[in-house]
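Hallway conversation turned thread

IA: we were arguing at lunch whether anyone had actually written out YugN-like family protein end to end. Turns out nobody had. So, for the record, here is the sequence (114 residues) and right after it the C-alpha coordinates. Reply here if something looks off.
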Amino acid sequence: MIIENTGLNGLSSELAHLDESAEKLGFVRWQWEYYRATYDLKLEDRTNREDYYLRFNVRAIEGKLESAHAVLQVESVYIGRATFPHGLDYDSPIPQPILNAATQRLQELKKLLA
Protein backbone atom coordinates (compact mmCIF):
# COMPACT_ATOMS: atom_id res chain seq x y z
CA MET A 1 0.00 0.00 0.00
CA ILE A 2 1.45 3.34 -1.02
CA ILE A 3 1.02 6.00 1.63
CA GLU A 4 0.08 9.29 0.01
CA ASN A 5 0.36 12.86 1.32
CA THR A 6 3.15 12.22 3.81
CA GLY A 7 5.00 15.38 2.87
CA LEU A 8 8.14 13.28 2.46
CA ASN A 9 8.00 12.64 -1.29
CA GLY A 10 10.57 14.88 -2.95
CA LEU A 11 12.19 15.90 0.36
CA SER A 12 16.02 15.92 0.19
CA SER A 13 18.66 15.34 2.83
CA GLU A 14 22.33 14.49 3.14
CA LEU A 15 22.91 10.80 3.77
CA ALA A 16 24.47 11.29 7.21
CA HIS A 17 21.52 13.39 8.43
CA LEU A 18 18.96 11.02 6.90
CA ASP A 19 20.62 7.97 8.47
CA GLU A 20 20.79 9.66 11.88
CA SER A 21 17.18 10.90 11.73
CA ALA A 22 15.79 7.59 10.47
CA GLU A 23 17.73 5.61 13.06
CA LYS A 24 16.30 7.74 15.90
CA LEU A 25 12.84 6.58 14.84
CA GLY A 26 13.77 2.92 14.41
CA PHE A 27 14.26 2.82 10.63
CA VAL A 28 17.11 0.73 9.25
CA ARG A 29 18.78 1.23 5.88
CA TRP A 30 18.73 -2.38 4.68
CA GLN A 31 19.03 -2.35 0.92
CA TRP A 32 21.33 0.08 -0.77
CA GLU A 33 23.58 0.50 -3.74
CA TYR A 34 25.47 3.49 -5.09
CA TYR A 35 22.48 5.60 -6.11
CA ARG A 36 19.46 4.34 -4.15
CA ALA A 37 18.47 2.89 -0.79
CA THR A 38 15.50 1.54 1.12
CA TYR A 39 14.74 2.29 4.77
CA ASP A 40 12.50 -0.08 6.76
CA LEU A 41 10.69 0.15 10.08
CA LYS A 42 9.19 -3.00 11.57
CA LEU A 43 5.76 -2.53 13.17
CA GLU A 44 4.33 -5.43 15.18
CA ASP A 45 0.62 -6.08 15.52
CA ARG A 46 0.37 -8.05 18.74
CA THR A 47 -3.36 -8.62 18.28
CA ASN A 48 -3.04 -10.79 15.17
CA ARG A 49 0.69 -11.58 15.55
CA GLU A 50 1.56 -10.08 12.18
CA ASP A 51 4.54 -7.94 11.29
CA TYR A 52 4.31 -4.96 8.95
CA TYR A 53 7.09 -2.93 7.41
CA LEU A 54 6.92 0.78 6.77
CA ARG A 55 9.33 1.47 3.93
CA PHE A 56 10.59 4.47 2.03
CA ASN A 57 12.88 4.65 -0.97
CA VAL A 58 15.49 7.31 -1.63
CA ARG A 59 17.63 8.11 -4.65
CA ALA A 60 20.92 10.02 -4.78
CA ILE A 61 20.55 13.32 -6.59
CA GLU A 62 24.11 14.45 -5.73
CA GLY A 63 27.01 12.07 -5.14
CA LYS A 64 26.93 8.38 -4.24
CA LEU A 65 25.77 6.60 -1.11
CA GLU A 66 29.34 5.80 -0.15
CA SER A 67 29.69 9.49 0.82
CA ALA A 68 28.08 10.87 3.99
CA HIS A 69 27.53 14.12 2.07
CA ALA A 70 25.55 12.56 -0.78
CA VAL A 71 22.18 14.27 -1.17
CA LEU A 72 19.24 11.87 -1.29
CA GLN A 73 15.64 12.51 -2.26
CA VAL A 74 12.66 10.54 -0.91
CA GLU A 75 10.78 8.88 -3.75
CA SER A 76 7.92 6.90 -2.23
CA VAL A 77 6.53 5.65 1.08
CA TYR A 78 4.66 2.40 1.45
CA ILE A 79 3.70 -0.33 3.92
CA GLY A 80 3.19 -4.06 3.63
CA ARG A 81 2.57 -7.20 5.67
CA ALA A 82 5.57 -9.48 6.14
CA THR A 83 5.27 -12.90 4.50
CA PHE A 84 7.20 -16.08 5.23
CA PRO A 85 10.04 -16.77 4.59
CA HIS A 86 10.68 -13.24 3.32
CA GLY A 87 8.89 -10.59 1.38
CA LEU A 88 6.10 -8.07 1.77
CA ASP A 89 2.47 -8.26 0.73
CA TYR A 90 1.45 -4.75 -0.31
CA ASP A 91 -2.15 -5.71 -1.11
CA SER A 92 -3.19 -6.93 2.35
CA PRO A 93 -5.35 -4.62 4.42
CA ILE A 94 -3.38 -2.76 7.09
CA PRO A 95 -4.96 -2.58 10.58
CA GLN A 96 -5.81 0.95 11.68
CA PRO A 97 -3.51 0.92 14.77
CA ILE A 98 -0.57 0.01 12.49
CA LEU A 99 -1.49 2.77 10.03
CA ASN A 100 -1.74 5.24 12.92
CA ALA A 101 1.72 4.25 14.21
CA ALA A 102 3.14 4.49 10.67
CA THR A 103 1.63 7.95 10.14
CA GLN A 104 3.04 9.17 13.45
CA ARG A 105 6.56 7.95 12.61
CA LEU A 106 6.40 9.52 9.16
CA GLN A 107 5.39 12.88 10.63
CA GLU A 108 8.26 12.65 13.12
CA LEU A 109 10.66 11.85 10.29
CA LYS A 110 9.37 14.82 8.29
CA LYS A 111 10.03 17.12 11.28
CA LEU A 112 13.56 15.78 11.72
CA LEU A 113 14.36 16.24 8.04
CA ALA A 114 12.80 19.71 7.70
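OS: looked through it. The chain is about 25% helix and 40% strand.
IA: good, adding that to the notes. The chain has a mean pLDDT of 94.
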